[in-house]
Amino acid sequence: MLGSAKSDSKSWKVLIMDKVTVKVLSHSCKMADITDQGVSLVEDLFRRRQPLPSMDALYFIQPSKENVVMFLSDMSGREPLYKKAYVFFSSPIPKELVNHIKCDTSVLPRIGALREMNLEYFPIDNQAFITDHERALEELYGENAENSRNFDTCLNTMAKRIATVFASLKEFPCVRYRSAKASDPSLTTFRDSIPEKLATAIWDTVLKYKSIPNFPQTETCELLILDRSVDQIAPVIHEWTYDAMCHDLLDMDGNKYVVEVPSKTGGEPEKKEALLEDHDLVWLELRHSHIADASERLHDKMTNLISKNKAAQMQQNRDGELSTRDLQKVVQALPQFNEQRDRLSLHVEIAGRINQVIRDDGLRDLGQLEQDLVFGDAGAKEVINFLRTKQDATPENKLRLLMIYSSVYPEKFEDDKASKLMKLARLSPEDMKVVNNMRLLGGSSDSKKASTGSFSLKFDGHKTKQATRKDRTGEEETWQLFRFYPMIEVK
Prior knowledge:
It is built from 18 helices and 11 strands. With 491 residues, it is of the alpha/beta class.
């Protein structure tokens, strides 16, 4: 997109975006990548902008009526803001908006390109993306969701953004979804039909892409749509990988971590932002490791770096005189050593801070109980004992424990049992609503027993202990608390 807007001269270009597309681009590339493509200025579509009639403009915007009207006001009349406009829409543009642009005869000669980029999703690493709908659970499954405007907007936007992924990858998916659990269609609720509604909306959007050049005409892959009831425990339980612990226990903004570094002038520590992303090779190597394994490997890496690096050795031992050849080796090795040392130091500090939180919050005991509940090795007695003896546990951790407990043993929250647990845990009524919603999300104990669907949380109907997972055979557990696994895993 940025490279295709080639102007006659080698002058700089302006890039104009809206609130959504600026997030798309910021998830995909850095400012340096944009400037490398000849962009000198990035502007907000809805802010007042300085006229630059000698420069070309790139518009990367959503195909909404408001955006099109704003674009036309920029480029129409005798004195447009920019010399030429190259317009790229983040998703398919309705025909009526294309006709609206065609009707403005003063703008048409000033348009260098008018294309659908089909790029409206937010990659968070090289294997995952989000559609940025933090309130989707409320807007799709909430009490007043049925026939609401928020429901339609959320579902259609989500479908459109998921579809742009397949347009980008040039893949035509066979869309599969989890059907309603009820064997009798008359018992199917509005909420049961949501996966089907989303699947239909995605399919309708993807079908339009068949007109894209080189887009497949038959299915090339599979898209599986599930709702959270397949595995409601995974987002709640404490997972013990380095990546999960970073996002769970540290105050991070997305993948951004703020670290304090000693001041060079000896004053207050300076705050420095670090991005934990795929370009960081240490992060890439350790992110899926158990936190204990990651801590050990970081210690070994730092020790090896210092022992093998000549510049480091010479920095540590400056008593002896250095030959000219030794000085040359120091100069050659020092920049690389400093970069490696700083990168490792960052992760050593992060791992240290995580381990400190684990100790301060007593997460090892809590994590053991959480996993014992999930694998059927603990029940009401162990939960009640924990709540009685660990009164200093944080409200959040007690809440998460009861959410897991309610998912595994929903019958323990019927009648007045829930209020007794609430008093013991010293949780607010609002917190207990969350626990009850967790129970309802997985269905009542009766419906769980009757469920025979292919995605049932029960693996073994004859098992005497109640468990939502079974231990994986043939896998030796090297690290403590590394037993848990999500129901759906990427292989």
